[in-house]
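protien #1 (seq + structre)
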Amino acid sequence: MEDVSATQLLLLSALLFLLPCSAYDACDELDHDDLLSLPFKAPLNWSASTDCCLWDGIICDPLYHIRVIRLWLPKRGLSGVVSSAVTNLTRLTHLNLSHNSLLGSLPDDLLSSLPSLQVIDLSFNRLIGRFPPSSNASNHLQIINLSSNFFNGAIPSSVLVPSISIYKVSNNSFSSFSGHIGDGIVKLTNLNILELHSNQFSRKIPSHIGNLSMLEKLLLHTNNFTGPLPSSLPNCKILSSLNLRVNNLTGELSAFKFSTLQRLATLDLGNNNFIGELPQSLYSCKSLTAIRYGSNQLTGEMSPGVVEFSVFTHCPSFPSLPTT
């Protein structure tokens, strides 16, 4: 009797050992069917008779190779819409459908249904409407890129979670994001890149934008921002690129502490309504390589000492941003 029990235990152990190997052979059936139901019109080599984890643009979880975690299809010539079937891929961490010809609006529960999402890139498509809000956007979300679409309306504050490091919603100007940025943006304390240019943002730049101490690139050009530069902006001490061109910004620059921006390489203040003297603190920006400040009401001559910094537009032997 003991020998029989030992044999049974041995068989059971072998069976349990083999189960993960069997699971490794095929992706989740529901994920498989949801992927096939996506209404993308493109020459994707997806076959219903094969494991979806082997399909082009699909990556499954590395442990059991069952659930789809990445839908990565940039520049695949996709057309059609982003259907609600995407929201059923609940283990997705990366969603990249950029540089295609996708149309229509996004599912209302896109972010709410993807609690593990880290990257969403839908840039360079033909998507319309408002970006959907989220009652529980992923706390893992790091990158949002919605640039070069036809989105409109305000940016939902519910999607602005502290984990975001790259936030790009530029060039939706045909049917633009509008309204003010909102104070929610200044809570993104891990933000490295903020690109909001070529929209219809208005009102003042948030006064507490200096809270974004990790910010390296701030591109707000070609909008309708008004008011003076926020006094907190010099707190963004690792900022390397600042573009505020083509807005309705006002006020004097002389009191602005450019000297704290020691990593600033490019600065564009052109086509605004700044007045007064060019700030002397600009001379302290030792990393500055290009600047544009034309089409304002700035006065004064640059100090001869500025030549050694190789930055200013009226020094023809040095590089500068174009004036148009």
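ok now protien #2
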Amino acid sequence: MNKIIKLYGLVLILLIGNTVHAAETHVVKMLNTGASGSMVFEPAFIKINSGDSIKFEMVDAGHNAVTVAAPAGSVPFDTKYKPSTIVKFDVNGLYLYKCSPHAMMAMAGLIQVSDASNKADMEKAVMKFES
């Protein structure tokens, strides 16, 4: 009887362990021309889970990805024109980012990490970015 209880306990632990979310790495491409026009991030909007990463790939030269606005407690990022940069996102909320030299051409993107708890702050940041 004791062995059966231990076996069921082990099976339960293994099942619970398999339900833990494995962090993923998503790809955002920086392009001169994409499906949605000129000077774009593809995708322009992406929803990920907390703990996931985004690999910013500079497909065409001369682009970067720089934080414009982000949730409180998050770390701002800047890809510094590198061919590819991986950024990990641990704080839930919305992140607005831009390509510095092409921001005037509306080259910007939005990342949602799990819950969008900072929506009001982000709406203000978008209004400021657009003006």
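The mean pLDDT is 86.
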